[in-house]
């Protein structure tokens, strides 16, 4: 059995890590590079860095920040925000990132997924999907959750897999920052209907939430922010508890 991955997420705005609730009311958390190093040294399996205003403000993710991060951490990390071309992806990977994630740009131009996958391999591209449950349908949003689209979670994820995406990072906007648990039912459907790894995001509030999303929904990885940023959950303790409940995790000593 493949070990489940624990992934802290660092939402970046102007080079600093921020956190909000349901994608709003952002609060400053701290320096992104320092936080990344802390997680790297304390049991995280991977990291995700998302410049959450890059697409909205028509900016590019700063490759200089990626270079600084790469010098400080020794675990894989993914970078997203404002990546809208093959050249953007190449710059981020060259700066030291292990994977890139796309969201709004892929909605605008789905073929971008294929271009990046063909050039660098499917394992290097993660599709981030932000969706909100509305009238019994999971509606996809873009531009950091600001703009509603005509896309639906399950059909869009299937299309992305077909185009060559290597992983799906699904964030439930209804659950984001609430600490009431992950969106279990859509996550379970995603893992059932896709052949690529699914990363759960949005709603982690307790160790039990992680245990449930792995055992019930069957996701390959779980991502969280505030419970790690504010040390409400310590990653090594989380891994020990998961292991005690029969969930395979990577080294946590």
Structural summary, described in words:
The chain contains 10 helices and 12 strands. Strand 4, helix 2 and strand 5 form a beta-alpha-beta unit. Helix 1 packs parallel to helix 2. It has a single domain, classed as TIM Barrel. By secondary structure, the chain is of the alpha/beta class. It has an 8-stranded parallel β-barrel, surrounded by 6 helices. The protein starts with a strand and ends in a 9-residue tail after the last helix.
Radius of gyration from the alpha-carbon trace, in angstroms? 16 Å
- Share of residues in helices: 25-40%
Q: Please give the CATH class.
A: Alpha Beta
CATH superfamily: Aldolase class I
Coarse structural class: alpha/beta
What is the overall shape?
Answer: globular
- Looking at how many chains there are and whether they match, the oligomeric state comes to single chain
Query: What amount of the residues lies in strands?
Result: 25-35%
Write a brief caption for the model.
The protein is of the alpha/beta class and 253 residues long. Helix content is 35%, strand content 28%. It has a single domain (5-244), classed as TIM Barrel.
Draw up the topology in text.
Blueprint lengths: L4 E9 L2 E6 L2 E8 H10 L5 E5 L11 H10 L4 E4 L5 H10 L3 E4 L1 H5 L2 H10 L4 E10 L2 E6 L4 E6 H11 L3 E6 L11 H10 L4 E4 L5 H9 L5 E4 L1 H4 L5 H10 L9
Parallel strand pairs: 1-4, 1-12, 4-5, 5-6, 6-7, 7-10, 10-11, 11-12
Antiparallel strand pairs: 1-2, 2-3, 7-8, 8-9
